[in-house]
Amino acid sequence: MALGAMGTKFYFKSSSGSEVTVGKLSSIGELAPSSEEIEITTLASTSREYMQGIKSAGELELEGFFDPEDAGQTALRAAYESGETGTARIVFADGTEFSFSAYVSGYGIGATEVDGAVGFTAKMRLTGGITMKGAGT
Predict the structure, then answer these.
(1) Are 44 and 55 in contact (CB under 8 A)?
(2) Cα–Cα nearest to 130, from 99, 108, 104
(3) What does the pLDDT look like over 80-94, one tens digit per residue?
(4) Which residue in 5, 7, 3 sits closest to 21, CA to CA?
(5) Diameter over CA atoms, the chain
């Protein structure tokens, strides 16, 4: 069964603050962990051989509409300025949840255009692994 995106929430907690909802989001990027490859080809091999190396949880980008009074956006800006690592959670409408540690590696206030809303972006570098809790668990 497919899961709709509407109703998804993103939460952020800096190491020195409390958890807040990041509001006015229009897009939460893909969680896409990957790993390095280690080549283990020997002289006796008939083709290249590899094994999995160290894993990386990757990066995540948030996009939305700028709101200077939104507590979540304010927390992301403050975390960027301080450089501290926080914890984040993505909770889908069915209750499925992903949580991880991350620091804010970039923050932008979007371009302004005629008849356009001012946007914002936040880039996060995940550090460590990603934990998943299924709906109803």
Answers:
(1) no
(2) 99
(3) 999 999 999 999 999
(4) 7
(5) 66
